[in-house]
Each structure stands twice: as C-alpha cells, then as structure tokens.
Amino acid sequence: MKKLEYLKDLGINQIHCMPVYEFEECQIYRNYWGYGAGSYFAPKSAYSADGDGARGLKDMVKACHRSGIEVVLEMPFCTAADKMMMLECLRYYVMEYHIDGFILNPFVVSMESVHADPFLKNTKIMEHELGFQTVMRRFLKGDEGMIHDVIYWLKHHSKEQGIFNYITDQNGFTLNDLVSYDAKHNEENGEHNQDGPDYNYSWNCGAEGPSRKKAVMELRNHQIFNAFFLLFLAQGTPCMLAGDEFGNSQKGNNNVYCQDNPIGWTDWRGLEKKKELHDFVKELIAFRKSHPILTPERELQGIDLSCCGVPDVSYHGEEAWQIPGEVSSRQLGVYYSGAQTKSEDCYVAYNMHWLEHVFALPALPKGYGWYVKATTERGMLDVPVLLKDQRKLELKERSVTVLTAERIVEVENEEKMKTLQHLQTINHHKYLVMKECFKVGLYRQGLLHDLSKYSPTEFLVGCRYYQGNRSPNNAEREATGYSKAWLHHKGRNKHQL
Predict the structure, then answer these.
(1) Are the CB atoms for 125 and 102 separated by under 8 Å?
(2) pLDDT the model gives residue 490
(3) Which fold has domain 313-407?
C-alpha cells in the first residue's frame, strides 16, 4: 500500500506489468521475466507472498483501483498459440481479475479481432512501438538528421488504440545508465557480455560509468531532465521505468532477466539522494495533466481548426514558423495552441546541440506574453517568469525550455485602472448633470441622463477610447467600434430640452 500511495502522489494513474502467468524459470538460462510460452490462464504463484497467485493478483488489482490506478498486463503470446485461446485468455483476465488493458504484439494477435470482441470493447489495447524510444534517444545524444522523425513521434497519437511512449523500459538501460554508459556491461549474466543489445543509442557524457567529475555529473543530470521533457511533452501516453524518477542504476547491465539480486532490483535509497529529480518528475506530470493541449483525444493536425489564427500545433527552428531544414539541425521549437481546448498556449524549445542557439518566438496577441515555466537547469518554476525579450529565446547547449502564454500582469492592472477611471469619469459627469437638472426641477431627466453609458456596448468601447489614445482617424474609430457605440448612445439619450 505504501508503494501505491507513492505512485498516486507522484501522479501515476496506470501501471504496466510484465507477464504474470506461470512459466518455467529453469530453462537453458534462468529466466525470471516470463516472456515466452507458459500457462497463460494461471497467475504465477511465486509472485504472491502466500503462494496463491490468483488471490494475490486480485488483491493487487483491487488495491490499485482503490488508488485510482489502472492495471495493464503485457501478454506476449508465443507465435504457436491458438488464436481463439488468446482471445479467451484476454476475456478471462478482464472478467475474473478486472484488468484494465493489455499490451499485445500485433504480429501474434489479430488486433482487429480484439477490437471486435464485445467483451473487450471497453478494454485498453496497446501496441509496442519502438520508434519513439530509438528516435528520442538519438535526438537526446545529439545525432543529426533527427528533426523530422522527432516531429512525427512528438505528435503521434491514435484514438483507436493505445500509443504509449517510453525512452527506457524493463528491456535495456535505466535512464541513469543511458546517460552514463556507452557500452553494455553484462559480465555478471554469465554469457561473457554477449547477451543484450549492442546498440543502445546511449552516451556516457564523457566518462564511462560512475564519475565524480562535476561537469560530467551536471551534464548527466541535465540529460535526464531533457529525457523527461521529451517523454512527458509528447502526445502519446508517457511510460517510465520504475526508479528512473530518482536515478536508479543497474550498473550498465542492459539485460537483467537472469539477475534476481541487487543488479535488477530498485534501490529506494535513491529517493532521498535525488529528491530534486523526483520532485521535478512529479511537477512535470502535474503540468502535463493541467494542460489539455498536451493530452488531446486525437492526433493534432497542424491546422487552425478553431479559427484563432494559429494551428493547433506548429514547428519552428531558429526562425519562427520555419521547420529546420538542415541535416545538421539539432534544435526544434513546438508551439501548442490552446484555443481548441480553452487552455493557455505552450511553446517548448529543444536544443540538443552542444552550442547555444537563439529561437525567434511567435508573436502573441496584445496583452499576452511568454512566461518561462520550466528549464533544464532549474526544473519546474514555482512562479512563472515573464520573458524579458518577447521576440527571442536564448537557449543554452543541451537544454529545454517550456514557455506558457499568459496575460501580462502589468497589462491586467493597467486595464483595471482604465476601467475604474472611466467609471469614475461617467459617475462624476452624471453627478454634475443631475445637480443642475435638480436645480430647475428636471428630476426624471437628471436620473435617466447617460444611463446607456453603463451598458456593455458603450462602456467597453468608451473605456478603450476615452482612457486610451483618442484617434481622429475615422477608419481606426470604426475598427474600435466607437461609431457604433456613439450611435447607440444618441439613440437612447436626449441631449436637447
């Protein structure tokens, strides 16, 4: 229960479980992971504290649901499995254990048959897609020619099936090891370091393995922050490996399937050692949830669907509204318009180059400004900071900055002062007129005089015109609605007795 409370506090609302069915551990090599053939309908007894796998799984699912956390099972059926049996197995886990979803291999299970099954129509079906992981890892370490692939995977989303993104998962490096090792270190697996993938698209930031060099440690920390930005600001469902939020390490082992020892365990002592990282992840998750534009029901189109003047998403380089065309480009700006979701606009600038770059920023409507919400160096800011230069953003090497478009406080205060001043002007004028009318016995005329100036049609226009810069230009007066307001006023007030 403590772990569930921890996950809930972190902002997690779904957990993915590796295979939970019975399988043979003692094969050619010891296997604690369960991938491959097994007794699919029988929850593994060794995973339960009392040896009752079925009861243990039910209790876990119930506890997760009480905490508002969904449970998704990975079901890697072998290719020889019967198709009807696979569907029946999925139905069994849904009806008997109330599982919320499954991760399936589309090359083994017919996804059409799963979606068409009435018992599974409300079940979340997810597919493994390695594209996001590969592209984002390469972009993170500074490979060239990645911009267009990054754009695709940042917006890739599907209403019909679950698209989940991950930079690290149970197969391969942890996030800490991804930025600490260039090569795998699987010597303890007993296979002479021949097991596990050789191409991890990792980068050690200048030193292989643990390092006490300040520059190396700082760069690694920044790269971890950048990885989380890439993960949680993409459109698909973000998935992170447990322990990455506090820098858990497997000492460079990218294939811990046969290690039932500290190498493959989660070291919770890191929670205190890297509390800053944990808090950043927690705040970033909250930021994603609070901005509907980052979690749309369908994939963003890059079209102005809300007729607000800007598309729902657009991509920029060092020049606004221009996607970087050079192969050597390693920087990208993403502008999310919140018009359709009635939320604030967001602009995310990624600079994965080893040099500083300057981004030209899209212009915002009058009265609005870009506020710095998060940076690689400072994490999530408690109070957004108004960007000094609204036309450009200077971004340091290998860093990310998140901006939000908000009403400028100074402008809001100015507008309030103008409104109050205009109201005082109207009240003073009406008082003087009433005073003179009452002297000559015109009580009704004095009370009704200029009441229309309080109406929205006249008040708002009058506030902008009389408390701002009065323009003699008729075209400008027409554009501001002054002429219409003046005709409205004349039609409702007698100015001659």
Answers:
(1) yes
(2) 65
(3) Immunoglobulin-like (2.60.40)
